[in-house]
Specification:
This protein has 427 residues and is of the alpha+beta class. Helix content is 27%, strand content 25%.
Length: 427
């Protein structure tokens, strides 16, 4: 993939890209006039309209239901609008920090890991923050301080800390201090916020979807308890509308250009070897590629089990959005997949249930993105791919591969249904 594709066609990164996207800086007086005249709102709406048009222009194949993929594209657009509005409503003020989920099951972006819950919070190195919580029994979580979003050119990660590395009491309770520098004499859990830090983020990893519960987090700005928010000015509201529109439109464009490059580079029947990803989290290697299957084809992805604490494989659609992981089996991790007697794992990607445990459901899509991840790994095995007619699948599997019945499939999917409510509770 070219450098230009990696930054959404601008050939820029960081603040230079943000300035190119935002255009010339405006004064408070100019922004106030834009809001009061309605121009700031109209500009926001134009960004949403352009984002939707961009997604609909992307060439897609057809499923058995005409227009289904275009409908999914518009659902994706609604999710992007949700993410954009979050930037203005809940992720805009480091003085009044709030922890929010983004993406989530119905508002997806960036090919999120189906095993992750993502949390974001706006922070500033000019303040200090106290994070408290309880580990519960989640597999692990990666905590980061970072500048922002890769699609906006902000891909720096300043500090990383694993939940399993935290000092906790006997009940799993913990406290973390966020500050520009560790204060003299401080001996507890700490994360640094150097200049440029704008967000504190969490990726919670679930392996056993039936039994694990997400860790709990609260945040407060030290010295900010009981302090009321300042009045919202017209100038500030215009800025927030601009931020929401920019986030929505650029997210739609950036990732669509990225997957278009994957699609054009793809060689059917082959997957790229794993590699570190610029802007990705620490200790993660990815394989990002494309897949396509005719209605009567099946694809077997085979690999040696990596020497890793965590590994998984998942499908995404043409919008760079994970497929319905909550009601379909569109991804499997190391705790869910069956490993064969020869120490290898074989994922079966098919449009209909082949009656094996490691089925990855295409949800009827003819093509899309495929990802695999190895985290905290000592080895990086490259997968092999076999594509063959559906009725010849057993030729590519060990003879002792057990049947997976319809009742077993329904029980496995029921676990996913229940897990969604635990991962994304109402409160």
């Amino acid at each position: 993939m070219s450098d230009e594709a990696a930054v959404g066609g601008y050939g820029l990164s960081g603040e230079a890209l943000r300035q190119a996207l935002r255009g010339p800086e405006r004064t408070k007086e100019e922004n106030a006039k834009r809001l009061l005249s309605g121009e700031a709102w109209r500009s926001f709406c134009r960004s949403l309209e352009e984002a939707g048009a961009h997604l609909l222009e992307f060439p897609v194949g057809e499923t058995e239901t005409p227009g289904e993929l275009q409908a999914q594209g518009m659902k994706y657009a609604l999710g992007l609008v949700t993410g954009g509005i979050l930037q203005a409503l809940e992720l805009s003020d480091p003085d009044l920090p709030r922890i929010v989920r983004s993406p989530h099951a119905e508002a997806k972006w960036g090919a999120e890991n189906v095993d992750n819950q993502y949390l974001w919070c706006r922070v500033s190195p000019e303040s200090q923050y106290r994070i408290t919580g309880n580990r519960r029994n989640v597999f692990d979580a990666l905590l980061e301080t970072k500048d922002g979003y890769m699609q906006l050119g902000d891909d720096a990660v300043f500090e990383s800390l694993l939940l399993s590395e935290l000092e906790c009491d006997a009940e799993g309770n913990f406290e973390i201090l966020l500050a520009a520098e560790r204060p003299a004499g401080h001996r507890g859990n700490f994360m640094a916020m150097p200049p440029g830090t704008k967000h504190w983020c969490v990726r919670q990893y679930f392996a056993d979807w039936e039994n694990e519960r997400p860790a709990y987090f609260e945040i407060e700005r030290i010295g900010g308890a009981g302090v009321a928010a300042p009045p919202l000015t017209p100038a500030r509201m215009a800025e927030l509308l601009d931020e929401a529109g920019l986030w929505t439109l650029q997210t739609a464009k950036f990732w669509q250009e990225w997957v278009d490059q994957l699609r054009r580079d793809h060689v059917k029947g082959r997957l790229v070897p794993p590699a570190a990803f610029v802007g990705g989290a620490r200790d993660i290697v990815y394989g990002n590629d494309w897949w396509s299957l005719d209605r009567d084809e099946v694809m077997v992805v085979e690999l040696e089990v990596p020497d890793a604490r965590y590994w998984q494989l998942q499908l995404c659609d043409v919008w760079f959005r994970t497929m319905d992981w909550a009601t379909h089996q569109t991804g499997l991790n190391h705790a869910q997949a069956r490993v064969d007697d020869d120490g290898r794992v074989r994922f079966v990607i098919a449009h209909r249930d082949p009656g094996v445990q490691n089925w990855i459901d295409t949800c009827g899509h003819p093509e899309g993105m495929i990802q695999y991840r190895y985290i905290w790994t000592k080895t990086r095995p490259a997968p092999s791919v076999t594509i063959l007619p559906f009725d010849r699948l057993r030729e590519a599997l060990p003879q002792n591969t057990p049947e997976f019945s319809a009742d077993e499939r329904r029980r496995a999917l029921a676990i996913r249904h229940r897990h969604l409510q635990r991962r994304e509770p109402v409160t």
